Amino acid sequence: MSDERSEASLFSSADASRSFDLLAYGDPNIDYVFETARVPLADEKVLGRRLGTFAGGTAANVADAASRLGARVACYGRVGGDADGRLLLAANDGAGVSNIFLRVVDEPTSAAMIVIDRSGEKALVYAPMLREPVDEVALSAALQQSRLLYTMPYDLDEFRQVTTLARTVGVAVAIDIEAAVAPDRERLDALLECSDVVFMNAGGFRATSDAAITIDTVRPLLDRGPKIVVVTMGAAGAIACDRTTSAEHPAFPVKMVDATGAGDCFNGAFLAACFDGRSLRDSLAFGCAAASIAVSAIGARTALPNKAQVNALLVKQL
Question: What distance separates the 2 farthest-apart alpha carbons in the chain?
């Protein structure tokens, strides 16, 4: 095949006999969503309205998006034995995401309070579950049934432990980097060295670089180890590079209702396209199209599209 298929297609052929294409590592959480005219400042009260309670969590959102777009997906993590935990398990069932590796534990489910302003932009507070040591036996068993591990690597020591297990059984690693995950170059380099596919939003890129986001400034990140690097820029579109090719794609015109989970949808869609064997360029377009649909309703997963919807939008834009 020509270079146009690039390294994105690697995930479509490796270990296809395994039960799951993607293993989403991380506890899902409940999102309590409120709308205000603007996000309040310190020591300030503003009026708003509660928009609802929704299934969320970075890795879990990616899992849901990828599953709706045809990938075989499982979640690995924990939920509480409460109503929130039951809602999350049911949401996975509805999206076709396997709960086989999710444990129900005796503590409150992870939660986030999300405040959305009138433009659709958001601010949030996240309350995770208590940390616990990695269960290497259980995780190794899950990895042996999977082709790619996806996670948001907040804890570097834990991430290194998890990626060592993944690589021992031949599983590729995909991560999402935002500013809070890699606030300095040393931390960024450590994460890049452990990863095969790296997603970054504009804030994550700018946390360690003053350069404009271009193919020429994104491509050097590959020198630290990853096979693919993707940077999303919201309304400015996205850029993707691998060792042989690069691509840019503009954002699709959209009336944004809620940006919550848009990046997660993009990541899940991009990976689902890779599993389908699409080229780097086509995977980037597929991710941009999916994310533009996802922002059309309140809630991180409410408007997640299926493959027919994304393909129809791509055809419409030709």
Answer: 60
- 3-28+58-109+135-316 under CATH 3.40.1190.20, yes or no: yes
Residue 237 has pLDDT above 50, yes or no: yes
Whether the CB-CB separation of 214 and 236 falls below 8 Å is answered with no
pLDDT digits (tens, 9 = 90+) for 205-216: 999 999 999 999
More confident residue, 187 or 5: 187
Give residue 157's identity as a one-letter amino acid code.
Answer: D
pLDDT of residue 11: 62
Instruction: Render pLDDT for 247-298 as a digit per residue (tens, 0 to 9).
Output: 999 989 888 887 778 999 999 999 999 999 999 999 999 999 999 999 988 8
Gyration radius of the chain's alpha carbons? 18
Cross-strand pairs, 282: none
* Closest by Cα among 42, 201, 190, 22 to 98: 22
Q: Which residues are CB-contacts of 185 (< 8 A; sequence separation ≥ 6)?
A: 208
- Residue 164 CB neighbours (<10 A): 11
| Both structure tokens of 135 | 């269960």
Give the Å distances, CA to CA, from 114 to 122, 154, 176, 233.
Answer: 7, 19, 20, 21
Please report, for the chain, how many H helices and E strands are present, in that order: 11, 13
